[in-house]
Design the sequence.
């Protein structure tokens, strides 16, 4: 399959290793990756902060860039949620019937990364190994918007030597919420403190998720407290320590 | 009051302006009828299972529970009242005479004042319908159940529920009471309770603190 | 007289109010404990119902339908209630409602009234108004009694005193009920309340209540409660006055079969709450001789005009959204500075105030969506929050201060960058260089200026890597066409 990678604005600047890991995993599975440099952002930051009109040109740009794509894979459930939950509404708000139609045509071809592996490719074992104790934080969009269910857990369970520890209150928000973390820094930090405590209680060395936004928030506190617990996007775990004899599975 | 009718017109006008007009009653009725209701209306549980479920719920509420057959009501009432150390109960008009045992006093209290009800030891009543799933007893202002104060003011409520009055689900209960929905109706699910203090559930705040149910099979 | 809108109290912004409340560890502990308990119970009883999602959907549709035809159903209710011997009054706003109720109480020459818990009476500032005119309102709901005696404010509309613990309550009762020897077990406290209030139920002639549902086809009303104080107030006095928001009407008595399943399970985590009462108008020999319903608008009817936000009025006041909200868990209800707290408060309060007050409330959310998941009438609260944020932004942009605020300039600049990838790529390069003064030796940013300092107060930020993904792709992968084959190394 020819898969187009939408890296997302924040992964591009802050977490390029996640993008490299996605490329790594998908190429091992035999797919051709393309990266369209015209890409920018999904528009969520503006939309969620109430800058609705300002989000429309950003959305229109995204749709234009990916109009003819076979599949676009996105290592961020919050961006995919923005597209599925709000793109049509944004286009309707703008009164642009063509944009509405283009969005409707594109939506079925948009996938979050872990969802792409399991639901589209039917793959749960990508041949990775990661000998660490890991805990999984279920980001809000992945649970309540994308309904990923246990897809990320199933992927992690297939990673060799990975010691997966459940986290208490896995589905409670980490407190990031985009601009919420800056507009309401005290409440955001309080929510983060609870989440970090739950992470630390698992004894894990690494906390993973399908969203770097949450992980950036978590690591912000884990590092500030000098806990030496790391965060890693699930793609990076899945790209680790490949068992070469297994070969790639298509 | 002139002020009031101005407020009425203002509010209705504001609503209509917000909605962008009104529909005809026929259109509204059709719209209402088209609301899909796929939720469970009735269950297919057999009578035995229903009884067991209802009893379970009563016991969970710490309601007293007793069983007898049709002919044994009066005897059972006597036993229960002896156990509870009570001699005199209020009753609504319409309680069958053969429910009432000798040796105890039963006063028809439909027209009693509140302070009179406050002094009596308890009330004996029938019910309109009971719901197994929730352990609910429904009473209405009809003969045998009476005005609401009777099941409210005295500290003890003794209710006779016939097995055939027990339905499984809330919608089924509404099937039974729909025709009398204009009557004062009370759904009773256990003794009164509060959880306002550190979420600890305490029974018996203002309503009757003691509830016994006679199940007639 | 200029209207002081009681729905919003001190008018501090949410971040400011929250910061204060976050300092109160006792409150936070009480709130987390209480909401944790209700949530667990709620999840259990919801799991018991295989048709829970069907009930939610039916509930949502019934409420949405009613709102679409609200004038029709209110008139139908009025007609049927009046035919049953009740009196229906209409109040445009809080002042109207207070005046109507005061007049009705004065007609009875009552100096005291007993009250059932109702947020609607808080909303209109009824107690203070009655007291100012020599009438003593007596709260009978245990939590409201605690609030009243403590001269406090409710923080949750089902468990209003959720923020106080038993030691605090005991101290209060000792002082205000003159019971120096009262024990501190919950049983002792409720016993004290029972005795204190019983003589009042038997003596006081006038009661004031809210209403959970107005029933259009019978002209009846439904009150949902646990303690029995509701039944006392709506049965024993001579006169009952009920103040109810206009949105509380349902088309038919049968509709209760849905809400009497979803409301108790959502609100207190019970299959059924102890007492539900329904009646129509007055019934000779059973209950009050006079029954008055005051239909309250107070900012509700304009909300109907906003098709996106109209669903706000579907609310049946179960407070499940409060119990599950991770923001509410941290701050409790007082941070919202409003009668209606939590997620529903964040969308209802600003709208009741025509977006003039409570403008920080739509931002008091991380948009996690937990509220929408539990709402028994499927109000898409996150969607409405974003919609209201849009209104706040538009309002701000219409002012000079707003147009030139840092936020607006920043967001406009970001939109400019996101419109074109070469602009974005350039901005990245500038950021990679420009951040250097902020980056500490260990590669982290520990301080950022202006509003970004909110982040660095409690969190570090990893510095931007020297090479972004697109830069990497352009250099490392430029030599191969798109779709390179996997390599083995």
Sequence:
């Amino acid at each position: 399959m020819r898969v187009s990678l939408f890296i997302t604005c924040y992964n591009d600047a802050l977490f390029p290793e996640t993008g490299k890991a996605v490329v790594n995993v998908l190429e091992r599975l035999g797919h051709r990756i393309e990266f369209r440099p015209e890409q920018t952002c999904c528009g969520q930051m503006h939309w969620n902060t109430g800058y609705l009109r300002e989000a429309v040109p950003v959305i229109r740009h995204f749709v234009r860039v990916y109009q003819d794509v076979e599949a676009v894979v996105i290592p961020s459930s919050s961006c995919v949620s923005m597209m599925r939950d709000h793109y049509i509404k944004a286009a309707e708000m703008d009164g642009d019937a063509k944009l509405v139609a283009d969005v409707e045509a594109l939506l079925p071809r948009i996938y979050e990364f872990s969802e792409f592996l399991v639901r589209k490719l039917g793959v749960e074992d990508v041949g990775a190994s990661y000998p660490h104790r890991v805990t999984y934080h279920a980001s809000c969009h992945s649970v309540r918007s994308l309904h990923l269910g246990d897809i990320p857990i199933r992927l992690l369970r297939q990673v060799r030597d990975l010691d997966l520890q459940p986290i208490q209150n896995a589905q409670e928000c980490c407190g990031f919420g985009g601009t919420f973390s800056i507009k309401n820094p005290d409440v955001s930090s309080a929510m983060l403190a609870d989440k970090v405590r739950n992470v630390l209680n698992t004894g894990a060395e690494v906390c993973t998720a399908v969203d770097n936004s949450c992980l950036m928030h978590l690591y912000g506190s884990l590092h500030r407290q000098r806990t030496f617990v790391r965060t890693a996007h699930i793609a990076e775990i899945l790209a680790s320590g490949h068992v070469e004899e297994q070969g790639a599975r298509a | 009051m002139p002020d009031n009718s101005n407020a009425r017109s203002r509010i209705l006008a504001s609503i209509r302006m917000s909605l962008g007009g009104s529909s005809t009653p026929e259109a509204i009725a059709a719209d209402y009828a088209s609301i899909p209701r796929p939720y469970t209306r009735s269950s297919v549980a057999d009578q035995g299972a229903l009884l067991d479920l209802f009893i379970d719920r009563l016991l969970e509420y710490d309601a007293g529970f007793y069983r007898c057959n049709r002919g044994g009501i009066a005897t059972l009432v006597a036993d229960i009242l002896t156990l509870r150390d009570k001699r005199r109960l209020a009753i609504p008009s319409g309680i069958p005479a053969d429910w009432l045992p000798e040796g105890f006093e039963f006063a028809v209290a439909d027209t009693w004042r509140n302070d009179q009800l406050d002094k009596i030891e308890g009330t004996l009543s029938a019910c309109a319908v009971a719901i197994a799933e929730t352990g609910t007893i429904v009473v209405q202002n009809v003969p045998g159940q009476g005005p609401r104060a009777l099941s409210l003011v005295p500290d003890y409520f003794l209710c006779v529920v016939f097995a055939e009055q027990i339905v499984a689900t809330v919608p089924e209960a509404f099937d039974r009471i729909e025709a009398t929905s204009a009557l004062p109706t009370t759904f009773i699910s256990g003794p009164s309770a509060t959880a306002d203090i550190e979420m600890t559930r305490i029974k018996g705040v203002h309503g009757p603190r003691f509830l016994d149910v006679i199940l007639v099979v | 007289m200029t209207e002081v809108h009681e729905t919003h109290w001190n008018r501090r912004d949410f971040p400011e109010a929250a910061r204060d409340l976050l300092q109160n560890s006792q409150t936070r502990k009480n709130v987390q404990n209480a909401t944790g308990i209700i949530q667990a119970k709620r999840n259990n009883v919801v799991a018991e119902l295989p048709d829970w999602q069907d009930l939610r959907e039916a509930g949502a549709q019934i409420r949405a339908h009613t709102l679409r035809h609200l004038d029709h159903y209110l008139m139908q209710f009025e007609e049927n209630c009046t035919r049953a011997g009740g009196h229906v009054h209409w109040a445009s706003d809080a002042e109207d409602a207070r005046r109507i109720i005061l007049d009705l109480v004065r007609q009875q020459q009552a100096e005291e009234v007993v009250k059932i818990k109702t947020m609607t009476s808080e909303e209109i500032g009824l107690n203070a108004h009655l007291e100012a005119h020599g009438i003593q309102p007596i709260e009978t709901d245990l939590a409201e009694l605690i609030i009243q005696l403590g001269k406090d404010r409710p923080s949750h509309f089902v468990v209003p005193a959720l923020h106080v613990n038993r030691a605090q309550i005991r101290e209060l009762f000792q002082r205000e009920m003159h019971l120096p020897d009262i024990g501190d077990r919950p049983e002792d406290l409720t016993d004290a309340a029972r005795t204190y209030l019983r003589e009042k139920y038997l003596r006081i002639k006038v009661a004031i209540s809210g209403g959970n549902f107005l029933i259009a086809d019978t002209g009846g009303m439904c009150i949902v409660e646990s303690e029995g104080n509701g039944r006392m107030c709506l049965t024993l006095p001579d006169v009952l006055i009920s103040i109810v928001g206009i949105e509380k009407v349902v088309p038919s008595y049968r509709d209760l079969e849905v809400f009497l399943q979803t409301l108790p399970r959502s609100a207190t985590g019970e299959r059924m709450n102890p007492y539900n009462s329904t009646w129509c108008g007055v019934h000779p020999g059973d209950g009050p001789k006079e029954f008055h319903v005051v239909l309250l608008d107070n900012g509700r009817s304009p909300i109907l005009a906003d098709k996106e936000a109209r669903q706000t009025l579907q609310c049946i006041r179960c407070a499940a959204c409060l119990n599950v909200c991770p923001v509410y868990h941290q701050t409790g209800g007082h941070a919202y500075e409003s009668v209606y707290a939590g997620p529903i408060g964040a969308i209802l309060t600003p709208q009741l105030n025509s977006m003039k007050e409570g403008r920080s409330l739509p931002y008091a959310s991380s948009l996690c969506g937990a509220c929408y998941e539990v709402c028994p009438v499927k109000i898409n609260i996150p969607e409405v929050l974003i919609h209201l944020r849009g209104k706040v932004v538009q309002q701000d942009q219409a002012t000079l201060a707003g147009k030139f605020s840092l936020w607006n300039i920043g967001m406009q600049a970001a939109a400019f960058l996101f419109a074109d990838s070469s602009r974005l790529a350039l901005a990245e390069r500038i950021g990679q260089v420009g951040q250097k003064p902020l980056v500490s030796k260990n590669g982290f940013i520990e301080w950022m200026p202006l509003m970004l300092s909110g982040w660095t107060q409690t969190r570090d930020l990893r510095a931007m890597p020297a090479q972004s993904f697109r830069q990497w792709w352009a250099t490392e992968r430029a030599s191969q066409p798109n779709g390179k084959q996997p390599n083995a190394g």
